[in-house]
Amino acid sequence: MCSHKDNCAFYLTYNKEKDTDKKFQLLIDAYCNGSLKEICRRKAYKEETGFAHIADLSPNGHHVNNNKRLY
Q: Which pTM value belongs to this model?
């Protein structure tokens, strides 16, 4: 489990077992709960810029709704 989960807007918004779109649950399973947590773009954004995460930034660096690369 990622140590940033308690403050992660993506995790807190989309980690709803029954209501979550499958694509979001796959991202949570891979990045928040899985082996890709060390390459999470949300975590890297905060560490590299010092600023809070972009609200619609998913762990893979894309916008949550349109798959446009944000970071």
A: 0.81
How far is the C-alpha of 35 from the C-alpha of 18, rounded, in Å? 23
How many other CB atoms are found less than 10 A from the CB of residue 64? 21
- Are 65 and 58 in contact, with CB atoms under 8 Å apart? no
Nearest to 64 by CA among 34, 28, 29: 28
Q: Amino acid letter at 29?
A: D
How many Å apart are CA 44 and CA 21, to the nearest integer?
24
pLDDT digits (tens, 9 = 90+) for 15-64: 876 566 788 889 999 999 999 999 999 999 988 988 877 878 999 999 98
Alpha-carbon gap, residue 55 to 49, rounded angstroms: 15
